[in-house]
Write a structure and sequence with these properties.
The complex is a heterodimer of chains A (161) and B (687).
Chain A lengths: L8 E9 L2 E6 L3 E6 L13 E7 L2 E7 H5 L11 E9 L2 E9 L1 E9 L18 E6 L4 E5 L1 H6 L12
Parallel strand pairs in A: 2-10, 5-7
Antiparallel strand pairs in A: 1-2, 1-8, 3-6, 4-5, 6-7, 9-10
Chain B lengths: L1 H31 L4 H20 L3 H18 L7 H19 L6 H19 L5 H4 L13 E9 L10 H10 L1 E9 L15 E9 L3 H7 L7 E7 L9 H13 L4 H15 L3 H17 L6 H28 L2 H24 L1 E3 L1 H18 L3 E6 L4 E3 H22 L3 H6 L6 E10 L2 E8 L6 H10 L11 H6 L22 H10 L3 E7 L3 E9 L4 E9 L2 E6 L3 E6 L2 H4 L6 E3 L4 E6 H4 L11 E7 L2 E7 L1 E9 L13 E6 L5 E5 L1 H12 L8
Parallel strand pairs in B: 6-8, 13-21, 16-18
Antiparallel strand pairs in B: 1-3, 1-4, 2-3, 5-7, 8-9, 9-11, 10-11, 12-13, 12-19, 14-17, 15-16, 17-18, 20-21
Helix pairs in contact in B: 1-2, 1-4, 2-3, 3-4, 3-5, 4-5, 12-13, 14-15, 15-19
């Protein structure tokens, strides 16, 4: 987590997985889609739901719930796909991420970002770049780049819970 | 500002490598024709550009180094010094050195420093003795470039009226003829009974074609092979004197055809007469041609391949949007929409083909490296070798071409080392002293074939067999075909060379060659004749991103198999598999192992009532795939699946279908390998 005197405002998109509020930088977001037909890939790991056609490009769709280590949930009206372009292992990758719902666009003051405690918490702090508190809510800044680049054993819930 | 300079530097390096490549090309030509003033000038100019550019962008070493060279070639240019093969060798060394200098702008280690000074000294030696020495001149092989012999044919193609009824399309035939060389085609339609009795299913047109080509009559005849019975065909070899195939001639020819009722004899007579009239203009025409080729080289632009990829993406998007429209038009049944869709379809197809074409580059772009390789190997081994390249304007996907350089280099190296014998052996065998290595490229359907042919001693099948038995790959007395034996050389670590040489024989390589070629979805074949030589044939798809595929359904989803691997489709009848072990399917002549894709892919949805089976070729074996239903052929624009699905490498990519859904393209080799891993044991004997 870097705190820089010069950096002031970051614009983030907030989304919900399992009633918890997460945030991602809007720079990485390409678009938000409704749930669309998915082509399943045989023998793919369960968190890869399949492939989607995003304006002529074939993108993998990752179910964040399963990737977090949560049970699969039925698709609701709120279920959304966020199309992202992020750097994974130094390679720009486009992908779709399925979340329970998309909430809001939000400006946050970088200096108010707090670090996430590494012990005794619900989530594995390795993948969380910080938390941001407002009057009535708590935003978790998930480091998707780190989180998704780790190939195996990336349950968000840390073993010490 | 710094970043701009870096950018410029990058550009310069890019440019410099181009210049160096041109330089190499000129030098190789110079070697054959050391007196050509044009070539010497072009070398001088290239050096000069390098020097100037180098100085401008801070490549001081490159600049100062090339300065020495420029001087040397200036002397040659002014005829104060004669170009010798030593100087050419020195120049080649220097080009390599400049390449190194471009990478490291400073000389850091002593070794490099020594080389640097050594070369400069050598250059100085030559530059300081500006004397003519006529003896050295003789060392240079003075050989004119063999120009391929072109001949001119007149082809009269007179189809019968009902040629169209059999589904033949004369236009395709004519198109094929046009591919053979420079052509001029006139079609003449005669409606004897006027439009009232016109029957659109009949053909009323005759075609007269003038073709300038290197091909033989048989090759022209081959084109018309399937319509032989439906047409009269005359192919006449015209007077070999230079016929002026220019517009004036064609205009005359056309008006002659239009005015007269022509048969072949009359036309040939007419053309032959014209030739005699025309001989005077020739020189002017050649000059014009030269100017044109200069223009050609100028009218190219450099585009980063990332931009092309982007363009390609957009185009594929348009293709799939058009597919949507087609579907909509089909459903709605609105005639206007249908017409618009048809127009759009035509244009999008054109657009797509054009964009894919941009990615294609001719084989000649990598040729220079082979030229140099042979030159070096020739001096290293003391074997004299002529390198002949044919069909180098054959085009391939840029990515494929770059990936092919190493395998081809390796094959050439092998040909020189193992194939071509030394001088004495050759003379004893009654062969010319000089060995020949030929690189031949040509189209074959949607593939490009590249052959590396040598006229050396060939590969000894017996030797390989013995070695295979020695290594335990083969049992003594086991019956195997020659092809199967030859395939052993593609196994890692397999070599029959008695001693390891500098160039090859370590047994590393052929397996890598095979792997690289298979990675490009290509194939490699060997033909060898003891004492006559060996031919390696690489068959590579023209582009990696479009393939012809067979669409089939499996559960709710669609999959695609490359058409190239599909052998036959059957209705899958469980009865036929009864009484056999290990999933074998009897096709009437023999048993074929099959894989049930429902089970293998763990697809939960229901099976079709009547399932089908696709037999695919895999490593010379046949394997059946049980699927639900074959849908049909499909032009596949292959798209990668990205790194998340790297583990699923038996899916080589996806393709977006007309309705926007995605079909997965199966890589049959990897899939069967995966299958055999998952079953390991029961399937092992098959694969």
């Amino acid at each position: 987590m870097e705190i820089n005197e010069n950096s002031v405002v970051r614009t983030v998109l907030t989304y919900k997985v399992n009633d918890e509020l997460f945030a991602i930088d809007v720079i990485n977001v390409i678009s938000i889609l409704e749930v669309c037909p998915v082509t399943k890939v045989p023998m793919a790991p369960p968190y890869i739901k399949g492939l989607i056609n995003h304006s002529g490009n074939i993108l993998p769709l990752i179910d964040l719930r399963i990737r977090f280590g949560l049970p699969e949930k039925n698709i609701t009206n709120d279920t959304c796909i966020i199309v992202l372009k992020i750097k994974i292992d130094n390679e720009l990758v486009s992908l779709g991420v399925q979340v329970d719902s998309v909430q809001d666009i939000f400006e946050i003051d970088t200096q108010k970002i707090e670090s996430y405690p590494s012990v005794g918490t619900k989530y594995n702090s390795k993948f969380i770049s910080g938390v941001y508190k407002t009057e009535n809510m708590l935003l978790i800044l998930l480091d998707l780049e780190k989180f998704l680049s780790n190939e195996k054993n990336v349950l968000l819930q840390s073993t010490v819970s | 500002m710094d970043q701009y300079i870096d950018q410029f530097k990058e550009k310069f390096i890019e440019e410099a490598s181009d210049i160096l490549q041109e330089l190499e090309k000129s030098l190789l030509l110079l070697e054959k024709n050391p007196k050509s003033k044009d070539l010497i000038d072009s070398v001088f100019r290239a050096m000069h550009t390098l020097k100037g550019g180098g100085a401008m962008f801070g490549f001081k070493l490159v600049s100062s180094f090339t300065h020495h060279f420029e001087n040397l070639f200036d002397l040659i240019r002014k005829e104060n010094l004669t170009l010798t093969s030593d100087i050419i060798n020195l120049t080649f060394d220097s080009i390599d050195h400049i390449k190194i200098l471009l990478k490291n702008n400073e000389i850091l280690d002593d070794k490099l420093k020594n080389i640097h000074e050594n070369i400069i000294n050598r250059i100085e030696e030559y530059s300081n003795v500006p004397k003519k020495d006529s003896n050295i001149e003789n060392k240079i092989i003075n050989e004119e470039l063999n120009r391929k012999k072109e001949t001119i044919f007149f082809i009269g193609f007179y189809p019968n009226e009902n040629i169209l009824l059999n589904g033949s399309n004369p236009f395709y035939l004519i198109e094929d003829v046009c591919k053979l060389g420079q052509t001029y085609v006139i079609g003449k339609t005669s409606l004897e009974n006027g439009y009232d009795n016109y029957n659109p299913e009949l053909c009323y047109t005759k075609w007269y074609i003038i073709l300038r080509t290197e091909k033989s009559v048989t090759e022209i005849q081959e084109i018309f092979l399937f319509v032989e019975d439906e047409c009269n065909l005359d192919i006449v070899l015209l007077d070999n004197a230079q016929l002026q195939l220019n517009n004036t001639f064609f205009d005359k020819f056309k008006s002659f055809v239009n005015k007269n009722d022509c048969n072949t004899e009359r036309l040939v007579e007419y053309i032959n007469n014209t030739i005699k009239d025309n001989n005077g203009n020739e020189i002017i025409d050649v000059k014009q041609k030269n100017e044109n080729s200069n223009l050609d080289s100028l009218s190219t632009i450099r585009v980063s391949s990332a931009k092309l990829d982007e363009l390609m993406n957009v185009v594929s998007e348009i293709v799939s949007i058009q597919g949507k429209l087609a579907l909509f038009a089909e459903k709605e049944g609105n005639e206007k929409v249908k017409i618009i869709n048809e127009e759009l379809e035509k244009t999008t197809k054109q657009l797509r083909d054009n964009v894919f074409n941009i990615r294609l580059v001719p084989l000649s772009t990598i040729l220079i490296r082979f030229n140099r390789l042979i030159r070096e190997l020739s001096s290293e081994t003391g074997k004299e070798i002529d390198f002949i390249a044919e069909g180098t304007d054959t085009e391939l996907d840029k990515n494929s071409i770059e990936l092919l350089v190493d395998p081809i280099m390796h094959l050439i190296r092998n040909a020189v080392d193992h194939g071509i014998e030394d001088k004495n052996t050759r003379l004893l065998a009654g062969k010319p002293q000089k060995g020949i290595i030929k690189l031949k490229a040509f189209y074959s359907g949607s593939n490009v074939c590249i052959q590396i042919i040598d006229d050396g001693k060939g590969i000894s099948v017996e030797l390989i067999k013995d070695k295979a038995i020695e290594l335990g790959l083969l049992k003594k007395g086991e019956k195997v075909s020659e092809k199967e034996i030859l395939d052993f050389i593609f196994l890692p670590g397999f070599t029959t060379a008695q001693k390891v040489s500098n160039i090859s024989g370590r047994g590393v390589g052929m397996d890598v060659v095979k792997k690289k070629v298979t990675d490009l979805r290509g194939d490699i074949g060997i033909l060898t004749q003891p004492g006559q030589g060996t031919t390696f044939t690489l068959t590579i798809p023209i582009t990696l991103s479009i393939i012809e595929g067979l669409l089939f359904s499996l559960g709710q989803q669609l999959f695609i198999l490359p058409m190239a691997v599909v052998d036959k489709c059957y209705i899958f009848d469980k009865e036929l598999t009864k009484g056999t072990l290990n999933n074998l399917f009897y096709n009437g002549t023999k048993y074929i192992p099959y894989i049930d894709l429902h089970d293998f892919f763990d697809i939960k949805s229901n099976r079709a009532e009547v399932q089908e089976l696709i037999v695919v070729g895999f490593d010379n074996q046949k394997v059946g795939l049980v699927i639900d239903k074959v849908v049909g052929g499909h032009q596949v624009v292959l798209k990668p699946l990205g790194k998340f699905l790297r583990e699923q490498d038996f899916i080589s990519g996806g393709s977006i279908l007309g309705d926007g859904s995605i079909a997965l393209v199966i890589d049959i080799n990897k899939m069967i390998r995966k299958f055999s891993e998952s079953i390991s044991g029961s399937m092992a004997q098959i694969v």
